[in-house]
Amino acid sequence: MMPSSTGLSLIGEHPSIAALRELITRVARSKAQTVLIYGETGTGKGLVARMIHQLSTRAAAEFIDINCAAIPAQLLESELFGHERGAFTGAVGQKAGLIEAANGGTLFLDEVRELDPVMQAKILTLLDNRRFRRVGAVKPIHVDVRFIAATNKILLGEVNAGHFRDDLYYRLQVIAVNIPPLRERGDDVFLLAEHALASYNASHGSRMRHFAPEVEDIFRRYRWPGNVRELENLLERICLLEDGERIEVAHLPQRILREVGLAPGAGMAVAASPAPGGYHQATARFQRELIAAALRAAGGQVGVAAQGLGLSRHALRHQMARLDMGGPDQA
Ligand SMILES: Nc1ncnc2c1ncn2[C@@H]1O[C@H](COP(=O)(O)OP(=O)(O)OP(=O)(O)O)[C@@H](O)[C@H]1O
Ligand SMILES: [Mg+2]
Question: By 3-state DSSP, what share of the chain in percent is helix, strand and coil, each rounded to 5?
């Protein structure tokens, strides 16, 4: 797809992504003072926050990114609000905080549920009054800042548990932007993959551009718990370590094969169940079950099932014959 005029682009053609792209534009151009972005890890919250800034009339001013989980609570207050000389031990000079730096622009509060109660109260006051005081200051400072908060856990749970102020939560979620997980975006996984491969090929000198049909099938079925970032990291690793132009099942980590039922471990439940007939019959039953599961997952292709099981095609055929799973030329 064509990059947008901002240089940032949200890749994807799934209806949920088309709708998200439109919402980003509308939110960016609105007068909304706060925005709450929700999405699992690696879904693109940081990217969406930057796009909202760049598509807004605030684009010429700063976009300031703060990870609330990465800064200790005592430090966060002076980082955000700044301080006057002598406000606390070590405050040798006067210092403007990030809120002042973001004046006219956007402040991105990543992992917002990590804000402690004191900071939650201070930010709520700032949102209500559009004014704040540097630590140790008497005079308030007026600012015009759009706050974009992000979370990868549903904040309402934190509210109900008493960890997050309900008034701040309701204030933030007036404009809520939900980013769907990668597994719910259909074939967008391939658009994102092609885009990532082009960039890794350019930087690493690799030539990866195709997917074995079985890999396509795995990409569609895998849950992608780390979402787009996980996809990017996987592809970068493959570009760095593997040769050729096509991504093969053998290039994928066992973790992924296991999750889609293509690797040892997939049939463990069978082994754990009570085993009439003694050890030999039970292990044979387990082996049959494991092989059958791998074959099902591989759409009946013995070569693919063998890769998933860490066996050669020949060894798998031999095992199937031994276990009466059809002759070596079947399946
Ligand atoms: N639709 C998309 N189009 C292009 N790139 C994307 C898209 N979604 C995510 N990315 C890319 O995926 C990576 C992860 O995105 P990002 O860091 O914004 O996720 P996040 O939700 O903030 O993750 P975390 O919860 O771990 O902070 C980045 O490299 C980002 O550019
Ligand atoms: Mg992020």
Answer: 50, 10, 40
